[in-house]
Amino acid sequence: MALKFNDSYANGFISEAEIASISSEVLAAQKTLLDGTGEGNAFLGWKTLPDDYDREEFARIKAAAKKIQKTCDVFIVIGIGGSYLGSRAVIEFLKSSSYNALKKDTPDIYFSGRDISAQSLSELLSICEGRDVCINVISKSGTTTEPAVAFRVFRALLEEKYGKEGARERIFVTTDKARGTLKKFADEEGYETFVVPDDVGGRFSVLTAVGLLPIAVSGVEIDELMRGASDAAKEYAVADVNANAALRYAAVRNLLYRKGYAIEVLVSYESYATMLNEWWKQLFGESEGKDGKGLFPASVIFSTELHSLGQFIQEGTRNLFETIVKVKTPDVSMKVPYDEANVDGLNFLAGTELSTINEKAMQGTILAHVDGGAPNLVIEIDEKNEYCLGKLLYFFEFACGVSGYTLGVNPFNQPGVEAYKKNMFALLGKPGYEDAKAALEARLK
Ligand code: PA5
User: Ligand 1 centre and the CA of 229: distance in Å?
Assistant: First the structure.
């Protein structure tokens, strides 16, 4: 199985009868998703990607990753939202959240173009000083402001450092297959390009070149990631809410939402999952938050945030539930040292594995939070490896599609993201936005 879903800690909040009653809606949503008959069905390419991905491009991704590993010390991934969260999540989950600080034979990887901060850009420019640099600009539209600005900055750096010819060997572009402005520009400049498939939206693109090139540069085995996702695709096609973990998760979270639990908090007891949490937040937030509906996706790392948000989760407004992502088999062994002075009174734990203590912290927290009125769900993967993570990524993508249709929204669009862009362009005086500019400025205080 490699991935298990356990909703038994939600028993006091929802019943088997209620799960049975929502099952027909969830099965209908699954059928809509599998048949491609629902809203947003032009963006379902991610469903079959683990099996029908472009083998030629996959081989080019691996070759480009090797070239990048050989020729640079610093690899800069330029992209925002779905264009970077997936790769960063995988790299940090499988390698480390301190990946850049590790002793390794792969380049440091930095993520840029994900804000409009002069400080972030100038810091990264100084990090690049005296080091060999490659960049991968990732933008489906090619016109997103944040990555476009960063691309200007780092393209200029590379051209100054290596000349136009040298820079050409160090710039990799992941974008629309044929139509976009970035594709045209890349072809004119002679940069190697990779494809964001037309039928895959940004937040579902981690298993395309968008995610795979940066992931491969970090040394993660991308074949295994795809194998895990491929097995998941088969498992989650089964039309049985009780046997299919993705359907059961979609059913339970929709039921909880209908009972007023409008906030889902994704929980991990390991900081290497911080960016996985961020990826998940975009996946569910952008897919479900529309038409005045949706569960608000939040996240925490425990036990760290038990000392900051724990109070609220235990006793605050009772409108949240937690979904814990847990790895069954720990991959690092470390024991509590014996201390003669025993000032902290912890000698009863001397020699105990930290993973055992972490597990007990989790079990104690689940029971306390359930007692406090927060339902808990647990998703467990067997190991922290490529195969299991590939499965987990696909699990969330599939559950998200089913859950969104069950909720009654189109999970594959994001019309609301445009609102801030229009205002920002108008306020910046972009040609064509003159009327809006005056009206917006009049409202600013
Ligand atoms: O999920 C999405 O569609 C978004 O997060 C996009 O990935 C993000 O806005 C970046 O867009 P683009 O790839 O066009 O630069």
Answer: 22
For the segment 402-422, the average pLDDT, to the nearest whole number, is 96
Q: Which of 311, 422, 413 is nearest to 372 (CA)?
A: 311
If one residue of 46, 83, 210, 412 were mutated to test the ligand 1 pocket, choosing by the most ligand atoms within 8 A of its CB, it would be 83
**289 ligand 1 Cβ < 6 A:** no
| HEC letters along 289-332 | CCCCCCCEEEEEECCHHHHCCHHHHHHCCCCEEEEEEEECCCCC
Strand order of the β-sheet with 376-381 is: 3-6, 376-381, 320-327, 263-268, 296-301
Ligand 1 atom closest to the Cα of residue 417 is: 9
- List phi, psi (to 5°) of 111: -110, 125
Residue 434: predicted pLDDT: 86
Ligand 1, atom 12: nearest CA belongs to which residue?
A: 139
Residues designated as active site: 286, 307, 421
CA atoms 420, 321, 255, 33: torsion sign: positive
Q: What is the mean pLDDT of the chain?
A: 97
